[in-house]
């Protein structure tokens, strides 16, 4: 059977291609941004700058989108042991893993044609990676109790340093350059560990922000669109589906209330790319003979398809914005209610 394509199909392809292009441009502009006065470029996904004794010099060199290794496993609450964040992530991983396994056993591998299952699996990967990194942080904290305390102090210090002018930053860096070089040479083994943590740490950060936007999108579509209007025999609405579309939001918000991770706006690019990959996946399986669409607004065989694709692309902004507001509320309300206990996440 020949594959029939219409003009509006190409418009849909163009919308997705444009979304991918804009996302790549945002990543190029912000994720790979130049970070210091000597024009050295750091690819933040691959390399984390090693910690040195003078935190002021380190943060002067770090980009605003930098995530230090300590932020991955410490809490935003003073006095809260990293073990609590570890326990939260591990319990979230177990519960979500159990729900996904039950869903898989009740149906089969075809559940992964749904965007919800993709996002649920991605959240599961986040909590698995977060559990491992938190366990490492707990081990580091038990081995060197001062490490956790210094990690908490480095976050407010970062904001103080960012307010210093460029001239002061350059002077501070030049004064401590020789000391930093000696420290780095004497800790070559530690540098290797920190570099690996940089890759996995930024991967965890990217998955976290992608999950946040995708979970808001899936839950809004499920509860506000699919349940009232678009339920069908393929969807199989039941208590399990309700749990999947509830616990994902509960666990990611709970993690946000405890963790010390930042939430910059530009990483909406990863969320957009995640959705574009799913759309392309749907096109491929339908080109190979798959007969039904899990979401009717993704169908290509209607002249209204370009409008639906455009609306779905636009809705990514408010969905990501909803979670950005949750993060902003956390950093705005909690410092006022608990000024001595809460540490802002930047």
Automatic annotation (TrEMBL):
<feature type="transmembrane region" description="Helical">
    <location>
        <begin position="83"/>
        <end position="101"/>
    </location>
</feature>
<feature type="transmembrane region" description="Helical">
    <location>
        <begin position="270"/>
        <end position="295"/>
    </location>
</feature>
<keyword id="KW-0472">Membrane</keyword>
<feature type="transmembrane region" description="Helical">
    <location>
        <begin position="206"/>
        <end position="230"/>
    </location>
</feature>
<feature type="transmembrane region" description="Helical">
    <location>
        <begin position="6"/>
        <end position="25"/>
    </location>
</feature>
<feature type="transmembrane region" description="Helical">
    <location>
        <begin position="307"/>
        <end position="327"/>
    </location>
</feature>
<feature type="transmembrane region" description="Helical">
    <location>
        <begin position="236"/>
        <end position="258"/>
    </location>
</feature>
<feature type="transmembrane region" description="Helical">
    <location>
        <begin position="121"/>
        <end position="140"/>
    </location>
</feature>
<protein>
    <submittedName>
        <fullName>Uncharacterized protein</fullName>
    </submittedName>
</protein>
<dbReference type="GO" id="GO:0016020">
    <property type="term" value="C:membrane"/>
</dbReference>
<keyword id="KW-0812">Transmembrane</keyword>
<keyword id="KW-1133">Transmembrane helix</keyword>
